């Protein structure tokens, strides 16, 4: 398998006005990810409202993703579950659709016990032969918030773990510490946290980022600029997009969907996830923030 690197946006789950999963809209978002210049995609994750999807809905959308991509981009399937057998089943479901790896969150119920995490991931790997695992280290309460050294120790104990998605703060420092503790034993560490710290992470040798989808073209351009040595351009894109990303930190998927709607990529912004909804003032403010970031958008200019 080619080493995974670059921009891998996490796809949201669009819903119809009747709150059903919207397959047609999902296909449009997949095509946008491809056209944006992203290096791959991830689904489902926390930015996909995964906790609200039924098993049949999840399976349906993973299959649609593989079909619509048709090999045009690499994809990583989200396969987190407290039960390693369920996690393995979700990983196999993704592999059947063409996923090259499974992103699996370090389970919070294992706490800081490295041995328990190793046993969990080893059980997943045993039940899904050939699986490449990306260990997702997320903050509490959703994740275990493992220390960087614990992340490296878990990876060392489970050969199937080749990548880490690091989302605990301070992200940049943790990328450095994981890479140092792993001593070359990983194929890469990617940043998360909505790309709000992406330049610090890249400066510390992160091999990519996994933001939400709404600025995929801007993030792809930032990555290409950084890789080519044009750090000034990367800094400009970061500076112009960061205010919108900070707004998204509060409103999460609802902000993502509002931006995608204004870019003509979604008709409905309905969300099942818990969290604050945008009021009239927020809708006015997000319009100003979109305008600030619009120069970094290479397609689907906001309306």
UniProtKB/TrEMBL annotation:
InterPro entries: DapA-like. SMART domains: DHDPS. It holds the Pfam family DHDPS. Keywords: Lyase. Belongs to the DapA family. This is Dihydrodipicolinate synthase family protein. It comes from Falsiroseomonas oleicola.
């Amino acid at each position: 398998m080619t080493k995974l690197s670059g921009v891998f946006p996490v796809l949201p789950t669009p819903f119809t006005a009747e709150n059903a999963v919207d397959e047609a809209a999902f296909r449009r978002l997949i095509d946008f990810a491809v056209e944006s210049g992203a290096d791959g995609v991830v689904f489902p994750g926390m930015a996909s409202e995964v906790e609200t999807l039924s098993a049949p809905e999840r399976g349906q959308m993973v299959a649609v993703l593989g079909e619509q991509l048709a090999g045009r981009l690499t994809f990583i399937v989200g396969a987190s579950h407290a039960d390693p057998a369920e996690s393995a089943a979700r990983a196999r479901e993704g592999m059947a659709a063409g996923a090259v790896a499974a992103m699996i969150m370090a389970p919070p119920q294992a706490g800081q016990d490295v041995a328990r995490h190793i046993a969990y991931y080893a059980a997943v790997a045993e039940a899904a032969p050939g699986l490449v695992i990306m260990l997702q280290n997320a903050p509490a309460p959703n994740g275990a918030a493992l220390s960087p050294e614990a992340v490296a120790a878990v990876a060392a104990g489970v050969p199937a773990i080749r990548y880490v998605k690091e989302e605990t703060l301070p992200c940049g420092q943790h990328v450095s510490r994981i890479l140092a503790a792993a001593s070359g034993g990983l194929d890469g560490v990617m940043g998360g946290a909505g790309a709000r710290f992406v330049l610090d992470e890249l400066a510390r040798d992160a091999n990519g980022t996994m933001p939400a989808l709404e600025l995929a073209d801007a993030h792809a351009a930032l990555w290409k600029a950084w890789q080519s040595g044009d750090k000034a351009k990367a800094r400009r894109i970061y500076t112009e997009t960061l205010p919108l990303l900070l707004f998204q930190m509060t409103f999460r998927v609802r902000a993502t969907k509002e931006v995608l709607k204004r870019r003509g990529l979604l008709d409905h912004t309905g969300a099942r996830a818990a969290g604050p909804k945008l009021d009239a003032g927020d809708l006015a403010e997000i319009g100003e923030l979109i305008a600030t970031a619009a120069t970094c958008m290479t397609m689907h200019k906001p309306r």
